[in-house]
Amino acid sequence: TLVSTLVGTAVADFHFISPGGSNLWWVAQSQNTLVWSCNDSPPATAYQLLYALVNNTNPTILAAAEAIVANIQNSDCSHTITVQQAVLTPATGYTLIFADTLDQTKIYATSEAFEVKALGAAYPPTSATPTGSATSTSSSSGSGTASGSTSSSTNKANSA
């Protein structure tokens, strides 16, 4: 139907921009910013509030996905993660997940894998852009992939 097509299109556009890939990392024990492709008019039943989790492919680094922020407004388009919200061990293989605030098994988007560098490492340059694809998922129309690019103004918060 037309409605499911429109919902599927909006969901396919929803993805993480930063961090992700080898060019966009976070720094341990520091403020870091996540940036996503927010939608000005998201579907009425989804994506208004988001629940952010962090995961790692190595269970010795992170045994399971951990919540870092609840109730993020989709329309904010970015959010600064404080040192207290995400205490992460320097390593590769991290991903961010946006899930439903009431049911974290409903995954809306997963970032590209990224690295958390040691305290004192430089943030990515503001000219850095994603190198691959992030995934967005919809329960109504399956899943898709989307890639994004950033401008220097989008990632300015990473250097804060």
TrEMBL record:
Keywords: Signal
Residues that span the membrane, as ranges: none
Domain Yeast cell wall synthesis Kre9/Knh1-like N-terminal: 26-116
Bias-annotated ranges (Low complexity): 124-154
Region (Disordered) residue spans: 124-160
Listed name of the protein: Yeast cell wall synthesis Kre9/Knh1-like N-terminal domain-containing protein
